[in-house]
Amino acid sequence: MVRVKICCISNLYEAELAVRYGAAALGLVGHMPSGPGVIGDDLIAEIAAAAPPAVATFLLTSETEPDAIVDHVRKCGTGTVQLVDAVNPAAYPTLRKALPHVKIVQVIHVAGPESVAEAREYAALADALLLDSGRPAAAVKELGGTGRVHDWWLSRRIVAEIPRPVFLAGGLRPDNAAEAAREVRPFGLDLCTGVRSDGQLDEAKLKAFFGALQPVV
User: Fold this and answer.
1) pTM here?
2) CA 64 to CA 161: how far, in whole Å?
3) Which three-class secondary structure state does DSSP give residue 158?
4) pLDDT tens-digit map of 76-110
5) I want to staple 29 with a disulfide (CB 3.0 to 4.6 A). Which of 37, 132, 204, 211 is the partner?
6) Where are the domains of the chain?
7) CA-CA distance, 217 to 209, in Å (whole number)?
8) The domain 3-213: what is its CATH number?
9) Considering only CA atoms, which of 52, 44, 49 is closest in space to residue 27?
């Protein structure tokens, strides 16, 4: 069974609901230039502390400077940091030294063939990659939660070529979950808007999403 990360968790109830249906990880969104799911650092820390031991907690940070990333993670207390924007590869040794027990997931916004080369570079540095559909070069950066599907052929190529776990994000919903898992063969699926209604985690959509994945092997 492919692992599932439910992102944009906004409170303790949503965290409990996601875990009850089978989420292996919770995404907690810090300050972003745009997009859904942003909550305060104190609430992120509260949700992270309450998560069951077997459930990973991801801090989504838009910080790109190593000292700012380290400060953000320490405030929030998550076991994983998800870098949603490009971070200078030279920053990674600083992050490793300051956060030795924190896993690092680098987001690659899949826009074209050049994303494959970017994924190869970061695969040598990060613990895992997450393939999303943002537009970091937009006037107001889009760094996640867009609800858009990108080119899964490129994502499958990245999965096949790099020796790291890869999460697939971007426009995943109950009606395309199984297809995404079969076509891309990722380590995990990551979703936010596809299981929400009016911004709130929708139990019926959550149930449908996990149900759609049951036949996937």
Assistant:
1) 0.93
2) 26
3) helix
4) 999 999 999 999 999 999 999 999 999 999 999 99
5) 37
6) 3-213
7) 15
8) 3.20.20.70
9) 44
